[in-house]
DNA sequence: GACACTGTTGAACACATCGTTCAATACTGA
DNA sequence: TCAGTATTGAACGATGTGTTCAACAGTGTC
C-alpha cells in the first residue's frame, strides 16, 4: 500500500514531503499542541485546504510525522564492544532527549496514549525505535532473561536523569550506570563461540548467573 | 502567603477547596488540555467568572492543583528493611502511574516544562515528591554516592516498564530490579553517629564496590 | 501545441471556545 | 439590620477550527 510506484503525481509527492517535514519540525520545536492544520500549512508554504485534503485530522498529521521520524531514525553502528556500544547508544538517546526535543515528543505521545488506539501504537513505535539499537546490543552479549530488565534500567535511568533532574549525562555517568547494570548481568550463552566478545568465562546452558566482572578502572 | 489565618472568608475557602479538587480530578482523569476554566467551573459547581477571579490563567489552576497533590501525597512508612521498603515504594510508584494516571500528569508537565519556568518548577516538585520516600530509604541504607544512580535506575526502570511497555510490574519484577541495582551498591559506611553525614570515601578514587549479598532464594 | 484530468489555492462560512466584563444576587461578619 | 464582598448568569469580541467551493495551475497524453 505504501509502494504506489505506479504514477504518483509529483505534486502529491512534493506536498507530502514538505508538509510532513513541516509537521515534524513543528512537533519537535513547539510540541503537540502547535501542530495545527493552519500552522503546518503556513510553515510548509501550502494552503490550509491542501493539508486538510491529505490529512483530515490532526492525528493524521502527527501520525505521519512520527512514522517518518521513526523510519529515518539512525543509530550509531555497533562495534562489538559491549560497553562502548551501550555507551554510544545511551549517549545518542540522551542527546535526542535534550537537543532533539525527544522528551517533549515522548511526553506528548504518552499524555494522549489513552485517548486513542492510534496514539498508543505511536508510543510503542517510538519506544521500540529508540531502544532497538540498545536491545540489539544487549541481545548479542547478554543472557536472554537479562535483556529486558537491563534495557529498562539503562533507558529508564537516562530518561529520568535527563528529563526530571535536568542534569547533563556525560560519559562518566553513563559508564557508571552501565557498570551497575552489568554487575547483575549474565553473559550470553553463545551457540557461536567465534562471535562472542563478552569478557568472562564461557557460560554453558546452565542457569547459575555469573556476573560480568567489573573493570576496576573503567575510565 | 499560604497561611492567611486572619479572617478568611469561608466562601473563598469553600471555592478554593472545591475548585482545586475539581481541577485535580479533571487533570488526572482527562489530562492537561481538559483543564479549562469552563470545564473546571462546571465540574466544581461554580460560575466561570468565579474561577477566573481566583485563577486568572489555566496555569494558575494547574499549578494550585499540582501543589496540592504534592502536599497531600502519602507514602508507605519505612520498616527499616531495605528490600521491603524499596519494593513498597516502587510498587506505590507503579500503582500511581497505572491507576492514578500519574503517567499522564508527568507527561503533561514534561511536555510543557520548556514553555514556562513555573511548569519547570512543577516538574521538579512532582519528581521530588514522588521519589522522596525512595530516596530516604536509599540514603539510610546505601553509600551516599550510590543514592542518585540507584534511584534513577529503579524509578526509571519502573517508569519505562509501566509507561512504554505497558506491562504490569508485579512483586517478582520489582524484586528482580532491586536485586540488579543493589548488586552494584555499597552499604552505607557505618551506623555510628559520628560518620552519619560522611558522603562516601575520602578524596581517594574509592575502593572497589562491595556488593550487597543477594539472597539466594529471592524468587 | 492542445487537451482532459487533477492537485492546489484563497476566500468565505458556521461553529465552538476562550477570556472578559458587569449589573444583579447571595452570603458573611459586625 | 446593614455594609462589604464573593458569586452569579449572561452577554460580548476575539480567536481558532473544520468545511466548502469556484478558480487557478501543474501533469501526462495525444
Q: Mind explaining what this structure looks like?
A:
2 copies of one chain form a homodimer. Chain A is an all-alpha fold. Helices cover 62% and strands 0% of the residues of chain A. The interface between A and B is large, with 43 and 44 residues. Chain A binds a DNA duplex (30 and 30 nucleotides) through helix 1 and helix 3.
The main pleated sheet of chain A reads as: none
- Percent strand of chain A: under 5%
Largest interface pair? A-B, 43 and 44 residues
Treating each run of at least 4 consecutive H or I residues as one helix, how many helices of chain A? 9
Can you count the beta strands of chain A? 0
If you compute it from the alpha carbons, what radius of gyration of chain A comes out, rounded to the nearest whole angstrom? 21 Å
Structural class of chain A: mainly alpha
- Which sequence of SSEs, written as H and E, runs from N to C of chain A? HHHHHHHHH
Low-confidence stretches of chain A: 1-6, 192-219
- Helicity range of chain A: 55-70%
The residue-averaged pLDDT of chain A reads 86
The global form of chain A is: elongated
**Multimeric state of these chains?**
homodimer
> What's the end-to-end separation of chain A, in Å?
50 Å
How would you summarize this macromolecular structure in one to three sentences?
The structure is a homodimer of 219-residue chains. The first copy, chain A, has 219 residues and is mainly α.
Write out key terms for the chains shown.
homodimer, 219 residues, mainly alpha, 9 helices, 62% helix, disordered C terminus, DNA-binding
Amino acid at each position: 500500500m505504501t509502494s504506489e510506484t505506479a504514477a504518483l503525481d509529483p505534486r502529491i509527492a512534493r506536498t507530502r514531503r514538505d508538509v510532513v517535514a513541516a509537521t515534524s519540525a513543528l512537533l519537535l520545536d513547539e510540541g503537540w499542541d502547535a501542530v495545527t492544520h493552519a500552522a503546518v500549512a503556513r510553515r510548509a508554504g501550502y494552503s490550509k485546504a491542501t493539508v486538510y485534503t491529505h490529512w483530515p485530522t490532526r492525528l493524521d498529521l502527527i501520525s505521519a510525522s512520527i512514522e517518518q521520524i521513526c523510519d529515518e531514525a539512525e543509530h550509531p553502528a555497533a562495534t562489538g564492544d559491549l560497553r562502548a556500544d551501550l555507551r554510544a547508544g545511551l549517549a545518542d538517546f540522551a542527546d535526542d532527549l535534550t537537543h532533539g526535543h525527544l522528551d517533549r515528543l515522548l511526553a506528548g505521545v504518552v499524555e494522549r496514549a489513552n485517548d486513542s488506539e492510534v496514539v498508543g501504537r505511536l508510543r510503542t513505535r517510538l519506544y521500540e525505535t529508540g531502544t532497538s539499537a540498545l536491545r540489539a546490543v544487549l541481545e548479542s552479549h547478554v543472557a536472554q532473561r537479562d535483556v529486558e530488565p537491563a534495557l529498562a534500567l539503562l533507558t529508564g535511568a537516562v530518561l529520568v536523569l535527563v528529563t526530571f533532574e535536568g542534569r547533563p549525562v556525560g560519559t562518566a555517568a553513563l559508564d557508571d550506570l552501565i557498570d551497575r547494570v552489568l554487575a547483575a548481568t549474565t553473559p550470553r550463552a553463545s551457540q557461536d563461540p567465534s562471535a562472542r566478545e563478552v569478557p568472562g568465562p564461557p557460560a554453558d546452558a546452565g542457569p547459575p548467573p555469573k556476573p560480568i566482572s567489573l573493570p576496576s578502572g573503567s575510565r
